Amino acid sequence: MTNTKYDVVGIGNAIVDIIARCDEAFLSNHGMEKGFMQLIDSSQANELYADMGPATEQSGGSVANTCAGIASFGGNCGFIGRVAVDQFGKVFAHDIRAIGVAFDTPASDVGLPTARCLVLVTDDGERTMNTFLGASTELVPGDIDSDLIGSAKVTYLEGYLFDRPEAKAAFHKAAKISRAAGRKVALSLSDAFCVDRHREDFLALVRGGVDILFANETEITSLYEMNNFDDAAGVVRAEAEIAVLTRSEAGSVIISGNDTIEVPAEPVEKVVDATGAGDLYAAGFLYGLTSGKPLETCGRLGALAASEIIGHIGARPEVNLKTFAKSNGLLG
Amino acid sequence: MTNTKYDVVGIGNAIVDIIARCDEAFLSNHGMEKGFMQLIDSSQANELYADMGPATEQSGGSVANTCAGIASFGGNCGFIGRVAVDQFGKVFAHDIRAIGVAFDTPASDVGLPTARCLVLVTDDGERTMNTFLGASTELVPGDIDSDLIGSAKVTYLEGYLFDRPEAKAAFHKAAKISRAAGRKVALSLSDAFCVDRHREDFLALVRGGVDILFANETEITSLYEMNNFDDAAGVVRAEAEIAVLTRSEAGSVIISGNDTIEVPAEPVEKVVDATGAGDLYAAGFLYGLTSGKPLETCGRLGALAASEIIGHIGARPEVNLKTFAKSNGLLG
Questions:
Q1: Which end of chain A is more exposed for a tag (fewer CB within 10 A), N or C?
Q2: What ipTM, to 2 d.p.?
Q3: What is the pLDDT of residue A164?
Q4: B271 lies in which domain range?
């Protein structure tokens, strides 16, 4: 195996989040299911935005958030995703580069604007997401940089990519290059509805092409169409090399061969905004893994990063995560 | 005097803030004076942005922030300012309308993009601002809606408008309409450097065309070229009908005829980001004044709104200010 330049290269949707607070009635009046993500088109996005309260904009995107987190821990990270030549595209590119992630996918100058996600945060800190994928849908297999993928210890893929055939093809191309180079492939199931839309594809991947699987409780039970977390965890043990299952305030479970490692959630004073909790857990975990830490430490780094992100609005860290982990005794 | 439809109509620059944290060295390395605002051109904005850390975007603009605050208190408010037809323009228009401010200035579809302010926040919570005025400079006297101005109890003008001759002409037109309709004119001196650039104009306005003057300590001493706050306060008493002088944690002083009303600052746990403190003080004060409250209550509403804004990132309120004031016993 040649030297690795990157710890992780992520491939996902390049999104700017537009975050506003709302009450429970707003969600039900707009037919949203609390805590989930739905895809919306341009006119739905305009209508919903007009109804929303004053907002804050911050770069987002699930795997992009993870890459930002890994860079904040001090990991070498690259990101592949498509923005447009517009102000949100500049915002996305600035933020991910400014935190230290290599990002060189050319911006699209035809067609759709940069993706945006209208995030509604209720008083309990739960987030409900409405994504207009825009230019993110223009990610094509040609955007997958073989040298970049081949030089990364882990290629991390976003389940949401499966929502578009071209992006799905890009996903498969990246996984193939990574495996051919003797690297690891990691996958996030993204969202229970996303799993529902692509169950057969995801099952095939877990059984054949993915080394590290990230899922929360609703996603893993949806994947195996089981009602019970323990049953689903039992099945995934036989199918995935490493499965990392997050359960919000109940902590996380790392399953690898015969090992089962339970990691408690880090206590937080108040959940201000849950956006990005899973993404930042993955950041801590993948940073730990690619730094050669034991799985339990990987999980604790994930839990710590998640605790930082849910204490404030937005899905990008407000503090340097390496410093934060050191001050919590998790890194030397 | 005919009925008033609006409590306050504000005229100012329509800006989106791009807010990032930095250390003191970043400011000195980039030749910035901490706590002040400087105007920058497009290429300076691009260079500085490339050097800045990951950021958050939020609508801003001094008088626009004040209008948002007045609306949050429940006041009827309108805003006049120029954005471009771009994503930041949509963000600005959305946010100010979503909080309840009437905003109908047509977006500019030629030339410069929507104004942006690169705000650097140091660990002490102080903000240093770098503004690219963009489309804001395209505000012209024709944008001043006479019916709107004539129907507002107070027209509130931003000193920063004086940085462009066309905007200055718009400013004078608005002040003239307001006076002719028997309304009040309020002015914010905006920034000590701004006062330095336009001292003679501002002195003429304070002596002749402005009923309510807002200034902080550095602005009022700069206006009269005095080293001492008390000396400057003594001079302004003879020249302005009402002068509202803010002094950060030392509170504020309201001067009107023979009256001198001292209002303490509201205690805050930690100054996270001072951006908008003066703007929100003005919001509380003008809401109180146009609701017929005594001057001391106006000052206390201002101090309360300022305390809310400095407790978080960004210059727009995160809570409903009417509810906040009621829970603090300031409104019935």
A1: C
A2: 0.94
A3: 86
A4: 6-13+61-83+93-104+138-327
